[in-house]
Amino acid sequence: xxxxxxxxxxxxxxxxxxxxxxxxxxxxxxxxxxxxxxxxxxxxxxxxxxxxxxxxxxxxxxxxxxxxxxxxxxxxxxxxxxxxxxxxxxxxxxxxxxxxxxxxxxxxxxxxxxxxxxxxxxxxxxxxxxxxxxxxxxxxxxxxxxxxxxxxxxxxxxxxxxxxxxxxxxxxxx
Amino acid sequence: xxxxxxxxxxxxxxxxxxxxxxxxxxxxxxxxxxxxxxxxxxxxxxxxxxxxxxxxxxxxxxxxxxxxxxxxxxxxxxxxxxxxxxxxxxxxxxxxxxxxxxxxxxxxxxxxxxxxxxxxxxxxxxxxxxxxxxxxxxxxxxxxxxxxxxxxxxxxxxxxxxxxxxxxxxxxxxxxxxxxxxxxxxxxxxxxxxxxxxxxxxxxxxxxxxxxxxxxxxxxxxxxxxxxxxxxxxxxxxxxxxxxxxxxxxxxxxxxxxxxxxxxxxxxxxxxxxxxxxxxxxxxxxxxxxxxxxxxxxxxxxxxxxxxxxxxxxxxxxxxxxxxxxxxxxxxxxxxxxxxxxxxxxxxxxxxxxxxxxxxxxxxxxxxxxxxxxxxxxxxxxxxxxxxxxxxxxxxxxxxxxxxxxxx
Lengths: 174, 408
What we know:
The complex is a heterodimer. Chain A is mainly α. In chain A, 72% of the residues lie in helices and 0% in strands.
């Protein structure tokens, strides 16, 4: 659910006020970018996908019902785009073509992890990192992740998450 | 419980996957075993570190600016405003030229009157020209109407094909299923078709990239709408789990003249064949129930029982205290004495605010007790008045709930 300020911005944006939508993006762009950056570990791809998510949100704002949480809705769009990019590599291919990046591999050189845990997350292999971000950080269930990835069973996902958890607990020396 | 069992179950415990009785056993073991307490502490520290990970990271470049720029690029593809001026100029010039011609024609007619014979010839010419014109107009009208008709037909076919999310894929989890009353091997279901399972079978109806409907044992449903942006089934009996994740589509259910609308949620519906109650459990997102008489929003991790007369029960948090749940159940059955209300208020936590708010809406005698408990958790915003709440003013309840929900 949204507070009154956000509800008013959403209502104005739904009527077509671009500035209200830009104010909304100012509030939520960090959330979208954080998901994208943790999944792609590449600032350029994360920025490109974030822009696409926000564009999609602007174009589909009419689908958002008054009583739904904007953040949850935006999270849903972000996860959808992140997985689409993971499957197709559409936006990274576009960036490679424009010579903005040379490849779509994780690039930690421009990212300063805020904690040891963050660094460990960013160093995970691609699919494990996606599962970890969706489950541990955004809060998706193993069944939901299984439906989204359409590749692993929920029990397989839980096993992977738990082995990462155990590995992190050892590494972080709690 | 042994230490090994404890350690094996600890992940399930933290993932909220254990039944209440096992959770209590875990908690009991923790009190007794110091080494497991240490082990559990490591997990707690880990989850604390995960919680402390920033939920927002600000990009270095101003992405909002990039949004504006992309908007400007789009608008630059549209016809430029100067074009309008050019067109107007051209039109003016044409008008001037045609006006000049008309003037000169008039002058010629005055100077050289035409002979009578020529007039007769002219009349017949005009007549034949008019007939030809009529025939041509008729032809054009016929042709145009055919073109419009075909275009409309083609457009309708295009819309139907473009917007249809059907046929959906049927995936068997166990047993077999019947499509429109007959055993089926097509593994497809279209709008208007019905599917049923027996006591050993379960199926999944998959709308690619949009949602999954999971039909339980001894259940049946009919697909009512199957468009890319709106999908709907009518559940006749049994149980149904729904997981919807597309940001562009609604995945809804109708049952017993109740409309269930939701967006990017997962929830389950279970029609109890004995009591005829319907149990709705929302796992993620939120779900809105609409009947002729009332509307109710059920948020995630809440359960709501719908009575056979379609009356919506009070939504209760799935993990709420057992005695609290029982007290709410008794209250719903009409036991609204002080002891029950006191049990509800004393056992409620801030996460049970929706339940308290719904009890408040129903309560007349002990309104003050519940009101003060709720105020203790979340003070009402200025838009909510106590008088309005007492008078069952729905906007007061909605406004208070909105204020509470974003905080929890």
